[in-house]
Specification:
This protein has 299 residues and is α/β, with parallel strands linked by helices. It is 54% helix and 11% strand. The chain has 14 helices and eight strands. The strands form two sheets. A six-stranded mixed β-sheet has the order 6-4-7-2-1-8, with helices on both faces. About 3% of the residues have low confidence.
């Protein structure tokens, strides 16, 4: 069960954080960008990605949506993270109690495995000495993707924030609204038992090559504009852990839905940026909005 849970988490992270409508050129028939017509405005729904390969830029369709929007809506108000650190309450969800260490939580064998793999990535483990294993595992995943050519500083949100606050721009920065807090996001993973966290870290190390291959498969499917394939990957992965899918995807979608509808009842166009997994599939935001009579058109 722990192995299944880990693989579910891994696929969730890839699909939620790494699939997007961003590419080097606008040569695809579709992007992971949809338009919803409100009463007096329109909302653009963009599937986001937090890391991209260097040189990847926002395609013209996304840039046009940004330019047309008066308001940016993201899972988090990333402007606060862009300009400052995490709150103490957030840090507590990532770290171990003061009298515990990562080395003790992992045990000698797994900690040695962690040190060796981290060293191969050029990752300094010293600052992780008091972080929870789940956070260490997630950090290793990001470093591993970096080895495959992906860069966290090239992500969609950071590109949008750079554009929004660029000193070379008009100076008319758009307001940014967050759908949830950092604490709410971190609790999705901090609830894991210590045994599940250790297994998550162990499998991250052992299956690093598989993770990169899986990421490439997902990106290739996206580059073909194959949303059916992305939906199939996610649904197949969550079949054996439907409770995790419910908690991290559909429950959050239901919580966000009233906020989406409020935005569609407004008068200003907005760009809503969330993980693509929250948009497609059963219980996705596209389906929820369609059931309420909204027309959702992929760009």
């Amino acid at each position: 069960m722990v192995g299944i849970l880990y693989r579910t988490i891994s696929v969730y992270l890839i699909l939620s954080l790494l699939c997007c409508g961003v590419s080097d050129a606008s040569t695809k028939e579709h992007h992971s960008l949809w338009v919803v017509q409100g009463k007096h405005n329109k909302a653009y729904l963009l599937g986001s990605v937090h890391i991209l390969k260097d040189g990847m830029t926002l395609p013209p369709a996304v840039t046009a949506a940004y330019d047309d929007a008066k308001l940016l809506v993201m899972e988090l108000d990333r402007a606060s993270l862009y300009s400052g650190g995490l709150k103490q309450s957030s840090l507590q969800l990532e770290t171990l109690p003061e009298d515990q260490t990562l080395a003790a939580a992992l045990g000698p064998e797994l900690y040695a495995e962690f040190k060796i793999y981290a060293s191969s990535l050029g990752f300094d483990t010293d600052f992780m000495s008091h972080y929870q294993p789940w956070f260490a595992a997630m950090t290793l995943q990001i470093y591993g993707y970096g080895k495959a050519g992906f860069n966290a500083t090239s992500g969609v949100e950071l590109q949008l924030l750079d554009k929004n606050f660029s000193p070379n721009g008009s100076g008319d920065a758009k307001p940014i609204v967050g759908l949830e807090t950092m604490e709410e996001q971190l609790r999705l993973f901090s609830h894991l038992s210590m045994e599940e966290q250790r297994q998550y870290l162990h499998t991250t190390i052992q299956e690093s090559r598989i993770q990169t291959q899986q990421l490439q498969q997902i990106v290739d499917a996206w580059q073909r504009g194959d949303l059916d394939e992305l939906r199939k990957i996610s649904m197949d992965s969550f079949k054996q852990s439907p409770e995790f899918y419910k908690r991290v995807v559909t429950d959050r979608n239901q919580k966000w839905l009233p906020k989406f509808i409020d935005l569609l009842n407004g008068r200003e166009n907005c760009l809503i940026v969330v993980g693509v997994l929250h948009l497609v599939g059963d219980g996705g935001m596209i389906e929820l909005l369609q059931h309420r009579g909204y027309k959702v058109v992929q760009q």
